[in-house]
TrEMBL record:
The lineage of its organism: Bacteria, Pseudomonadati, Pseudomonadota, Alphaproteobacteria, Rhodospirillales. PANTHER family: HYDROXYPYRUVATE ISOMERASE, INOSOSE DEHYDRATASE. Gene3D superfamilies: Divalent-metal-dependent TIM barrel enzymes. InterPro entries: IolE/XylAMocC-like, Xyl_isomerase-like_sf, Xyl_isomerase-like_TIM-brl. The keyword Signal applies. This is Xylose isomerase-like TIM barrel domain-containing protein. Residues 1-22 form the signal peptide.
Length: 294
């Protein structure tokens, strides 16, 4: 792919986001900019082609904070330099369950170099697991054990620790009376592990995200903010969905006004935009516009 096309795509990202933000001016501003970040995985295809141009376009759109999912093929110092060059700050990062279990010193060292404020696991399914299958008690118990072992050192290093709720946790627990989510919550120490609730995946599992926020209360401190198209199927516990199911905020099935109100009441700190659709830049633009009310 030629560099001319790459630069054109990056400029298109910036223009699309800026245009959408301007077009939605006058909306009710529910979330301060200081509490908004973008999960970089949303733009992983563009980042793999030209990370500097993609990050610059993201910053030009008005975004200042991001959530990482890796180091984009660099070491921690190189990743931090890349963000600095673009004028972006990484407020937190997803880490693998294997690193949480086996490489806590590495997580801490990376966090100190990049400047993360929080870290957490976002995916429990084994590498290569079928898309149409969920998880079971073994995966939940492995996560609980890893968090119990890692949490003291991570907290001592000044990091907040979170678990990313991905929807498959709401399947029935064959080894208990409730769900795998019940099993997980019982095993995670709320004094150490906060929750990052992914609104789309909770809805995909057939759970009302507003009701869940009210139920979990102060345990949810972070949201993954993304919407589902009207008519999208629910009641599924695989953590997978067609790309066409993702919608920008305000154009889907979620009552965001009620959800943001519930998030405020619960004390949510971070609203992390993520999009897994075929057109993530356009969707992020509309979602950012809704959150910022501009």
């Amino acid at each position: 792919m030629g560099r001319t096309w790459i630069c054109g795509a990056a400029i298109g990202l910036s223009l699309a986001m800026g245009t959408a933000i301007a077009a939605l001016g006058g909306a009710n501003p529910p979330v301060p900019d200081a509490n908004i970040a973008v999960q970089l995985f949303s733009l992983h295809k563009d980042l793999s082609r030209d990370a500097p141009a993609t990050l610059k376009a993201l910053r030009d759109s008005g975004v200042t904070q991001v959530e990482a999912y890796g180091l984009l093929g660099r070491d921690a110092a190189g990743f931090k330099a890349l963000l600095d060059q673009a004028g972006l700050v990484a407020v937190g990062s997803h880490v693998s369950l294997s690193d949480l279990r086996d490489n806590v010193p590495g997580i801490i060292a990376t966090a100190k170099t990049v400047g993360y404020r929080y870290v957490g696991v976002a995916w429990l399914k084994a590498q290569g697991a079928p898309f149409d299958k969920g998880i079971g008690p073994a995966e939940v118990d492995a996560a609980i054990a890893a968090y119990k072992a890692a949490c003291p050192a991570l907290k001592a290093a000044g990091l907040r620790v979170m678990y990313h709720v991905h929807g498959y946790e709401f399947a029935a627990d064959p080894g208990g009376k409730g769900t795998l989510m019940d099993r997980l919550l019982a095993g995670l120490d709320p004094a150490c592990v906060e929750l990052q609730m992914d609104v789309f995946w909770v809805l995909k599992a057939g759970i009302d995200p507003v009701a869940l926020l009210k139920q979990l209360g102060g345990r949810v401190k972070l949201l993954h903010v993304k919407d589902m198209r009207p008519g999208g199927s629910t009641g599924e516990f695989t953590g997978s969905a067609p790309a066409s199911d993702f919608a920008p905020i305000g154009a889907g099935s979620v009552d965001w006004t009620s959800l943001v109100a519930a998030a405020r009441a619960a004390g949510v700190d971070w609203y992390v935009l993520e999009d897994e659709s075929p057109t993530p830049a356009a969707h992020l633009a509309r979602s950012l516009a809704w959150l910022r009310g501009r």
